[in-house]
Amino acid sequence: MAQNPLQVVEDVFDPGLNDEPAFMDTNTFMKTYVLELEKEWEVDGKTPEWAPVTDGGPLEWGKEHRSMELVDNDRDEAFLHDDQMAVSPDGKLIAISTEKVIRVYGMADKELRGELVGHLGSVSSMFFAPRVPEEQQDAQYLLLSQGAGDHGAYKQEDDTIIIWHLDHEGKSLTITTPFEVGSLADRAITTISQDLSNQHNLSTEAIADLRKGFLDALKTADTKNRQSSLLSFKGSFGSFNSNPVSPDGTLILALTSNESTPSGTRPAELLPKIVVRSILNPKIDPVAIMQGHIDAIMWASFSPTDSSIIASAAWDGTYRMWNTSTSPPTTLHTIKPKNKVQNWSGAFSPYSEYILLSGTDNVAIYSVSTGEKLHSLSSCEEFKVASWTRTISWNPVSNSIALASGSQILLWEPFDTESPNKCSAVVTHPSSGKDKRECMLDIFREFQAVKWLDEDVLVAKAAENSWLLWDRAKGLKWRFQRPKGTEGELYSDGCALLKGEDGKRVFVSLDADRKVREWAMD
């Protein structure tokens, strides 16, 4: 009999509800449960060995090689706490965003190299460009970041993408003198406070509130002033492992007017667009604009081998493939699954012959040249694929595909010569069955990230924030696990696999307790 995947402490349940949970939120879950699995990287009945460094089992937080706590800003409750992590392609720099501020550190020494200020809202996405164009002689690194956009009640309005030019040490090449906001606010209040007090009987507390208002306004003005000197433009990146930088490193794509259309239609000029710009000078006229989707675009990516080929998936029920080598760009294929569904994500094969596209109740592989459907995951009869299978990763050198499907990680090999369209559930939680208490916890059982870190190593992240790694070639596995009772206030899929000068591998992760951890793998 399979183990219960989540161990329970009974006193969180309301005895007045026949021992069924009165509620289950993230905090209750994090305090109460610890991850257990029915199957962990098992393929064809074979389970990989625990890596020697794990001492025969999972390693809990606190057992890492070393860690670094995130630096806090003055945390504003109006902001979403969505911290991000990015590691430079050469592994020498690590960038961490906490709300609106990005801090760049040396990876080896963890010394702060610089603070990047320019976003008005929290940074929601951040990554290093895989290469710097040859024409960009002054910059050693390009760091790209996106503001969180308009979240309404959270008062975040920053649909801005910034390209930061960093030198070999990770310091910004664009330097703008910051405002002395505290001094300016004090001078402003000193000038008017006596009149407000004597002539208008304004209390000390009210004057203090007025100073805070001045301070906030000056901080916003300071950020806008810094942003004006940076290379920035309006737009957002796609989700679900979108690749917005062309393979030659010269182009960048962004989505504009990308709001959902919940009902009815809207004018053509306000429909979602894919805009391709020069990464050297994105403020000049766009290289190409693609329009055709009539609802929000979830995923948009360049082909990994051809800078003129772009694919997209949208909530209008269609996938599209575009050719930007013509003027204007042309639509190569418009793919419509049988039922109009919400389409979520995609992934190109390593050499761009095929594309994997996923949407509600639809996961299939198509030919890039013809648009013909070649394989469908729905034809696998061994298990049911989750309706919303959105997180997918195609191996960088082979035709092995990993998918996060609800409480399972799937390994799909559609072109396997011995077993065509072979698919296996390689990581699973036990089924919740009909137990109401267990069904309530299904959302916490889901896997929310899966990615090939290189041709051999696959990583997955559980909703409760533990990391699972598998080296397929060596037959080894690792689990870096959140301890029972550990609370956390963020979910991040930020991670990287680095190799030291001694050849030994290190896994770097950003975890829910707001620590960056380094785990020895060899």
Automatic annotation (TrEMBL):
It comes from the Eukaryota. Gene3D superfamilies: YVTN repeat-like/Quinoprotein amine dehydrogenase (2.130.10.10). The keyword Membrane does not apply. Keywords: WD repeat. WD repeats lie at residues 290-332. Pfam families: WD40 (PF00400). SUPFAM superfamilies: WD40 repeat-like. This is Uncharacterized protein. It comes from Zasmidium cellare ATCC 36951.
